[in-house]
Amino acid sequence: MERKVVFSGVQPSGGLTIGNYIGAIRNWVSLQDEYDCYYSIVDLHAITVPQVPKDLRKNTLEVLALYLACGLDPEKCTIFIQSHVSTHAELAWVLNTMSYMGQLSRMTQYKDKSQKLGESVNAGLFTYPVLMAADILLYQADYVPVGQDQKQHLELARDLTDRFNNRYSPTFKVPEPLIKKEEGKIMSLQDPNKKMSKSDENDNGFILILEKPDDIRRKIKRAVTDSIGEVRFSEEQPAIKNLMTIYSAFSGCSFEDIEKRYEGQGYKQFKEDLAEVVIEGLAPIQERFKEIMNNKEYLENVYKQGAEKAQYVSNKTLRKVYKKIGFVVK
Q1: I want to staple 16 with a disulfide (CB 3.0 to 4.6 A). Which of 20, 177, 292, 307 is the partner?
Q2: What is the CATH number of the domain that holds 239?
Q3: Do the Cβ atoms of 229 and 267 come closer than 8 Å?
Q4: Mean pLDDT per 10-residue segment, the chain (330 residues)
Q5: Does 198 qualify as catalytic in the annotation?
């Protein structure tokens, strides 16, 4: 049987957090054995906000190395840098001509960022959900691993699929979400009501995959808790629930086991142990990352081979699109 297709990607706009690892990349590793997976470093998306060129190049290669260090296997999945595959920008332009201003203006992330930027908001920030749709549709993706906060963008991809298929005849598959379980979502260490993010102004709110052990200990020690004083996985204790989710992800312990282990002990010992669990869990990833970053030839081979395959597969979709809309195909 032909395997179902999965597409996903991460922006190279800074170091990846343990939230990226637990909520996304670790899940991708398990999917690569079951699906035909395309995983991209989406650098075209990254430039919707100003980037320092040398930092963007460095971050792009580091994200690629982290993909590999976390367990993605280029023999099992296709790993590529988005800007290396020209079809993404080409299909995005076609889909832009079928996208409605009203729908794009209602995108939550655009509304949030445009309020901060005012009239200086760029057109790329307005239309980047269309590029995201192109990313997905190029590979005829059956599934897209998304969190609740990204469902709106996938809905746009689904709408554009229906719009194109109805106007020109069936061309794209309608992508379905692979919703990550809510307990896999990692929140800020300083505010359990918002997702852990590398763009957090308070660097105590996130832990990077490449974070040094002493910094991990410091950040977990400073993590907010509550006045209840009990280690319980409860909606009434969102900060502790978040810390327990991290503990469970790195240790494999169930929430019930964690509750029993720290019954009557308060938070101090729990936090100290959590820091060591995270440090121990990240150590092999960090070590593998160093090895990969020191092997530039291997990194180059991975992204070149990935781009070649992605270009070949996506070209087939783009040629169909060009024919159907009336372009003279060379």
Answers
A1: 20
A2: 1.10.240.10
A3: yes
A4: 92 89 91 96 93 95 96 97 98 97 84 71 88 97 82 90 97 89 78 89 94 97 93 93 96 94 92 97 97 96 98 98 94
A5: yes
